[in-house]
Write a structure and sequence with these properties.
The complex is a heterodimer of chains A (414) and B (278). Chain A is an all-alpha fold and 414 residues long. Chain A contains 17 helices and no strands. The longest helix of chain A has 32 residues. Chain B has 278 residues and is α/β, with parallel strands linked by helices. Chain B is built from nine helices and 14 strands. The radius of gyration of chain B is 20 Å and the shape is elongated. The model of chain B has no long low-confidence stretch (mean pLDDT 89). The chains are: A mainly alpha (414), B alpha/beta (278).
């Protein structure tokens, strides 16, 4: 590993890794989970997942930087520029590996080393693939995250014999990569892939997915759909399908709790994604104002708040139907619980959008959204489990109305 | 004879079975400022990119500073400046941070030139690049490409987003750079008045083919529009750039009488461009 430029290795690191929004979304997630590894050393179920997630996120951030390099026409002319950026990435990878090793030592579980080496193996594949094929970024990342999560959930402890296998495979890939002569070369489609990746953020949904079926939804949720894009209807259709499969599966196996958890998790993940896309398109306001629909910018903002309210109502309806159907299959219709749960989901959505209205700084928004995500998840699941009284229903109803008012009030700050 | 800074030798390039560059031969010598003129999609950007090895020709070869353009050494790269049509690469940076990092890669960076241009184009070094207008980003890209006084400068529509004053000042600097440093400059533009103001040579490209390459003064003196009645008029003594039913654009005219010609008119660069694409 060689530092190429004459400036300190860390020069520009903040801008490259934290201020490039596409990279920051992976890098910040990697930093947080790497630090959480140290805290989670006592929780065996969690630490493996944390190690896997943090390392893969860090490699994804480097892969993103490699796409940025491919999109930059002049980078091959500036001697040392590429090495400078990649040197920083390698330093971050080594640091996150060192912290992971430290947490493994504290946890005293050698099997976690197999998880760490596996994560590095998956990570290097993500990185090296994206050095040449920028269009693969989203799909490769999601496939890797899916596989990694599946491995952690299905296999309690990865066997120790995997350690040397992973290490050998890792070294083989590193040595083999030299024959990939096209790595980091400028390509005409890279800038487009970079910008698409920037707009979709963490979105796992391909841009054309289910797009034919969503036009009426997008029309009904305009102008929110204008900012979020076709993803809005795609997510809604996707989550409806998820609910349907959850309800059907619940007829055969009692998975009510799990189905509610997965639904809530997906719902708020999607809300966060939608907000992400909306923030990316803030500059599109100018185009919206030029449409012969709104008289003033304020009326456009008010229309936006109403479309968010419509989305919240749709989500509440979907959550209520799913929760009621799930409980009905268990021979006990928990109507109040289902209603409270659906209101909590709608209120969570409105709260997230209110934050999106106020928060201009993307990094601050990411941080606050993470906290809100936890709050919304906790509240919704708590409501489903415990809100079986009218008092609780009244309280969550008041909270929902307050959130609707908050969303309407904060829209002026966009 | 000096070695050309940039040498295209019979370069052809296809994209999806479409001919983008057709047998281009072109030399950029020290002190030359070549203005590349052509319609959108004529092949200008591909021609410029192939000079840097970003695009590899299907036939022929491109040499920059005596080396094959796709195998440039580090020392040659440090002598080449390039501004792409789409400025991209330092998103998330402030101007000062981007310049500080960029100059660390160049030992011959001219700090005075940087400061002078920052002041002239009213760029505040504390501004974030994401907040700059397209014109300001282009100006910054020009500073980054020129502050180390490259021997070969390749600019893809460098002034398209600049206001007329900034454009005029930049063009003047471009000319000074070529004179002072003996640099060779190849730049594309749609703005014929800019090309006329600064270019020593004109290269006119149409559908991937280099129609015309000569000194600006020679083009002014020897390119004419000949109007005629009989289509049998003999123009074999000249290179016919474009021929229509009652007129033709000829190159190589030296003041003699053309038998059968109704009128022989001079053309401005803009008129020439329009006539050739008419």
């Amino acid at each position: 590993m060689m530092q190429a430029s004459k400036c300190p290795w860390y020069q520009g690191a903040v801008s490259f890794w934290l201020k490039d929004v596409g990279c920051a979304s992976y890098f910040i997630a990697a930093i947080i989970t790497t630090l959480l590894c140290l805290i989670a050393t006592g929780i065996e179920d969690l630490i493996g997942l944390m190690i896997m997630f943090s390392i893969i996120c860090m490699y994804s951030a480097i892969a993103w930087q490699s796409i940025r390099l491919q999109a930059t026409e002049w980078q091959s002319l500036v001697v040392g520029y590429r090495k400078h950026v990649m040197f920083q990435g390698k330093v971050f990878i080594i640091l996150s590996n060192l912290i992971s090793i430290l947490s493994i030592i504290i946890a005293g579980n050698i099997n976690l080393l197999a998880t760490l080496t596996m994560a590095n193996l998956v990570g290097i594949i993500i990185w090296f693939l994206n050095r040449s094929f920028s269009h693969l970024f989203t799909s490769v990342c999601y496939f890797s995250f899916f596989i990694a999560t599946l491995v952690c959930v299905l296999i309690e402890q990865l066997p120790v014999w995997l350690i040397p296998v992973n290490v050998v495979a890792f070294i083989a890939i590193v040595l083999f990569h030299k024959s990939f002569t096209s790595a980091y070369k400028w390509r005409p489609d890279s800038l487009l892939n970079y910008r698409n990746g920037l707009q979709s953020g963490w979105s796992p949904v391909p841009s054309g997915f289910l797009s034919n079926y969503g036009s009426s939804i997008n029309k009904g949720l305009f102008p929110l759909s204008y900012f979020v894009g076709s993803g809005l209807s795609q997510y809604l259709i996707l989550i409806t399908l998820l609910c349907f499969f959850g309800v059907v599966a619940n007829l055969f196996y009692n998975i009510t709790e799990q189905a509610i958890f997965v639904l809530t998790l997906n719902l708020f993940a999607i809300v966060t994604l939608s907000l992400w896309s909306k923030v990316q398109k803030q500059n599109s306001w100018e185009l919206l104002f030029t449409l012969p629909i709104y008289n003033t910018s304020y009326s456009a903002k008010v229309a936006l708040s109403y479309s968010v309210l419509k989305l919240a109502a749709l989500v509440a309806l979907l959550c209520f139907s799913t929760a009621a159907a799930l409980t009905l299959a268990n021979q006990e219709l928990l109507l109040v619980n289902a209603l409270s749960y659906s209101l909590a989901c709608a209120a969570g959505l409105l709260l997230s959008f209110s934050i999106g209205n106020i928060c201009k700084n993307i990094n601050l928004l990411s941080g606050i959204l993470c906290l809100t995500f936890g709050l919304n998840m906790g509240l919704a699941n708590y409501m489903f489990d415990h809100a079986d009284s009218i008092v609780m229903l009244a309280l969550i109803s008041t909270y929902s109305v307050f959130m609707a008012g908050l969303n309407r009030f904060t829209v002026r700050f966009i | 004879m000096t070695q050309p800074l940039l040498n295209y030798k019979n370069v052809s390039k296809h994209y999806n079975q479409r001919l983008i560059l057709n047998n281009i031969t072109l030399n950029v010598e020290p002190g030359m400022v070549i203005g590349l003129l052509g319609k959108n999609g004529a092949g200008k950007t591909t021609l410029l990119r192939s000079a840097l090895g970003l695009v590899k020709p299907d036939e022929g070869e491109v040499q920059a500073l005596g080396e094959l353009s796709h195998q440039l050494s580090a020392s040659s790269k440090q002598k080449i400046g390039y501004v792409a049509q789409q400025t991209f690469g330092y998103e998330g940076f402030k101007i000062a941070d981007a310049l500080a990092l960029h100059r660390s890669f160049y030992p011959n960076w001219d700090m005075q030139l940087e400061a002078k241009w920052l002041a002239r184009f009213e760029l505040n070094s504390k501004d974030a690049i994401n907040d700059l207008s397209i014109g300001q980003r282009q100006t910054l890209a020009l500073i980054m490409a020129m502050a180390y006084r490259p021997q070969l400068l390749i600019l893809d529509e460098p002034v398209a987003s600049l206001d007329p004053i900034a454009r005029r000042e930049f063009m003047s600097d471009l000319f000074d750079l070529a004179i002072d440093s003996g640099s060779g400059i190849l730049f594309s533009s749609h703005i014929t008045s800019d090309i006329e103001r600064v270019a020593s040579h004109i290269a006119l490209i149409k559908q991937g083919e280099l129609l015309l390459l000569d000194e600006l003064d020679v083009i002014r003196d020897t390119v004419r529009k000949v109007s005629f009645k009989e289509s049998t008029i003999d123009l074999s003594a000249y290179k016919v750039l474009n021929r229509q039913q009652n007129c033709a654009i000829i190159y190589g005219y030296t003041g003699e009488t053309v038998v059968g010609a109704l009128a022989i008119n001079t053309l401005s660069l803009e008129q020439l461009f329009v006539e050739l694409h008419g």
